[in-house]
Structure formats: C-alpha cells, structure tokens
Amino acid sequence: MTGGLLFTTVPGLPVVPLPAKGEALNSWIWAIARTYGLMPKTYLRRLGIPHRWLTKAIEQDLVIQPLPSVMERLQADTGMAPDVVWGMTFFGLDRELEDACRRHHAPCAACVNEASERAGRPVGLLHARAAWRIVCPDHLPTPKPMEMADSLPLVPFHGQVRTIIRFLDRAAFDPRAFEGIVGTRMAPAFTVTVFLRFVFLLNAYLSVQITEFDELRDWAGFRIRRTFTRNEAGEPLPLPPEEGNDPAISLVLAWQLVAAPIRTLLAGLHTVNPVHRKTARDTGQLIALACLLLEFWPGEMLTPLLTRLALSRQDWNGDGDRTGLAIATTAPWSNDPSHSARLAEAHWTHTAWTRVLFSDAIRNHHTRRVSRFPAAGPFRWRFLAANGQAAPLIGEIRREARQSGRKKPASLGLFLAKPVPATREAHAAPPQPVSVPAIPTHIA
Ligand SMILES: [Zn+2]
C-alpha cells in the first residue's frame, strides 16, 4: 500500500471508504456496505458470492481464500489497485497455516484502537488472524522480573522479538525463508507451523529467565527456572499458568534453539544453579529439557554433541579438562572476563547432555510411544544430518547395528543401540499423523 497508486480505475461506486493501513478485507467490505446502509450480506451477494456461502465463516474465507472473481468485482466497484485489494488478504499463505489462521483471531487492542481512530470508523486488522503473531511487534510486553533480570535493557530484547515476528511474517508466505536460518538441508523440516508448535511446547513445559543479552550479536542468555513434572502415569504436566513465561520469552528461546542449537544449548541456556554448585535439580532440569527437545528435534540435531571431535578433551590453559565443543561454543567470549565461568558451565552442560542422552531416564520415557506431549514431533525422516559433519559417526553406528543383526534403529536409537537392547528404540517410529508436510526423501 505504500508508494504505488491507490486507485487504478474509475470506481463503479460513487463513494468509496479508503482502506486503513493493515485492514482486513472483510472489515473494508463491511465499511463499504455501511457507507450505503446495506447489510454486509447484501453487498457480498452483489460481489457475486452465492447465498449458501454466506455463513459465519465468510469473514475468514474472504481473508484466507479470496475468490478471484469476487476480487475483480470489488476492484471494479472501488477502483482500487489490485495489489491494494489483494494485500488485504492472506493470498499466497502457506497452505499448512490456513487452518491455524482460520481459528486464530487475536487482535491487538492497542493496534485496533489506533487504526480505528485514524480511520474514524471501526477497523479490523488483517494481522489479527495471523496465527504466528504470538505477540504484537508494536506493543510488546515488559517481561516480569522472574522472566528477565531487571538490569537488562528492554530495547535489544524487543528488537529481537520484532525481528523474529517480521521473519515469520515473511516465512508464512515463503516456504524457503527458513533456508537463510537453518541452511538448505534442514530447511524443508522447518515451517512456520512447526516453529509455532515448538514455541508453544516450550511455553507450556519450560520456564526460563533471560539473564543476559548480548546487544552486539542479538543473543540472549537464559537460565531455566522450572521444568514440567510428570504425573503418576509418567505423563508430563504443563506448568501452572503463573509459573509460565510470556510467549515473547518462549519465542526468543525457540528462535535461538532453532537458529543456533548447539551454541544455545551449551553457552546460552543454563540450568538453575551456577557451575560448581550444581545439584540433582540441575540434572533433573537437563533431563526434562532433553525430553522436551527430543519431542521436537530429530536425534541427529544432537549429534554434534556426540562426535569425537566435540567430545575430545583438550587441556585448555592447563585449566583442567574441557570438551572441544565447550571450547568452541564459548570462543566468542575468549577475551571476556566471564570466559572461564562460561567455559566451565558449557563443559558441565556438554558432559551432562551426553550422559543424559544415554541415560535410563531418556530410555524409559522414549520407548514405546513417540510422543508423550500433546504435539508429536514433526519429523517424518530422521536422518537429516546424514551428509553433515556427523555423517561418518552415524554411518559407523549404523553399520555396527546392522552387522550385529539388529533391526536398524533410527534417531536417538542409533546412540542408544550400544548401551541398551536395540528393540527399545527411542523415537524410532514415525510420529502420529500430524498436519505437516512429508519431508522429501532426498534429505534422508
Ligand atoms: Zn499492537
């Protein structure tokens, strides 16, 4: 709506209310009808919509699946440029997101008030139906002290939330958008729908506090406050609402876990107690985090934790044993006074992760069923890293598994295959049917 012409033809109607910035098509059509004292239905019939389609869902239909013939008629009536009229719809939306957007209606009250005041009439905004707009990028929440250390500046945090929402605004219409974030090989596994599911999973089962924010790199550092507990049947229970994070916090955490998984795990997301004062509570948190991530990630996303190079212990400055990966992920801070503490924390986390991945806790919780969470993991094929740096190790484990005459285990099962019987595959079966696209086999 910016720059180009608003009107391209002479309107068929004598008076046309101008669309407000960001207005949804249905809201504008209602405004046109109101201008002429018509019932919206009457005007919709004039636009060529059959009577039987004039149901309660018509407002969503107009925005999500606009009919070209109706749009042409509307364009002729109003004289508006086609891209202005189409721009009030979700034309070109990723098909997978359609259902979510149909159900979603969460207008930001402040945005609606501003738009309505400016237009001098009630305005409904298109983004109210955007399921990925978890928070309004123009009216961001101020995190509670339990969610963000109070000495931290708000501006860079808000800046990152805005960047993520803008990215999702684009990715909802561009299936290749994730290539720029996770690379071409992993990109087909990530869609806006998948990412949203991850955000909601984290939000329901994990509560964190942002403890630092690197303004230069736009990295947030987190400490886990609480993780989910399980009921007697072993099912995970969502956190009580008052303990949960604002969705904006979970959004930033999910983003960092997707964009830089290993760095976030080792150098960005720490358990509750600082290093040298870790307790069983820290281990418990790490196990919970592993269970949570394994619902979403294919085991291969964790393979960088388990490669030989990552695990190889190197004497670092004569300062005791550190894993290669701990050294690598904390390298950006090598000139920072905090470096040795960060390195020690990353080393603890890395060692704990590798232990957790082979532990009984993981084995027991990930045996018979793929998912104990409401949203099953989205991955159909779990060999995404097959051509990556971890490939030789994965290949080796697979070969060993085959030679020993076992059924070929998948995913985490590859790594559990050694310490546990191969029949107890963790995460091996494909998830229950979920509305996600099949990952093309060429990735496998
Ligand atoms: Zn707003």
Helix/strand layout:
Blueprint: H1 25-35, H2 40-46, H3 58-64, H4 68-78, H5 82-86, H6 98-103, H7 109-119, H8 154-171, H9 179-182, H10 192-205, E1 206-214, E2 219-227, E3 229-230, E4 236-237, H11 247-259, H12 261-268, E5 269-270, H13 280-296, H14 308-311, E6 313-315, E7 321-323, H15 324-329, H16 339-357, H17 360-365, H18 391-403, H19 412-416
Parallel strand pairs: 2-5
Antiparallel strand pairs: 1-2, 3-4, 6-7
The structure holds zinc ion (ZN).
Account of the protein in words:
The structure is a single chain. With 444 residues, this protein is mainly alpha-helical. It has helices at 25-35, 40-46, 58-64, 68-78, 82-86, 98-103, 109-119, 154-171, 179-182, 192-205, 247-259, 261-268, 280-296, 308-311, 324-329, 339-357, 360-365, 391-403, 412-416, and strands spanning 206-214, 219-227, 229-230, 236-237, 269-270, 313-315, 321-323. It folds into 2 domains: 25-129, no CATH class; 154-377, no CATH class. The strands form 3 sheets. It has a 3-stranded mixed sheet with strand order 1-2-5. Strands 3-4 form a two-stranded antiparallel ribbon. The longest helix has 19 residues, at 339-357. The structure holds zinc ion (ZN). Zinc ion (ZN) is lined by residues 108, 110-111, 136, 138-139. The site of zinc ion has 6 residues, from helix 7.
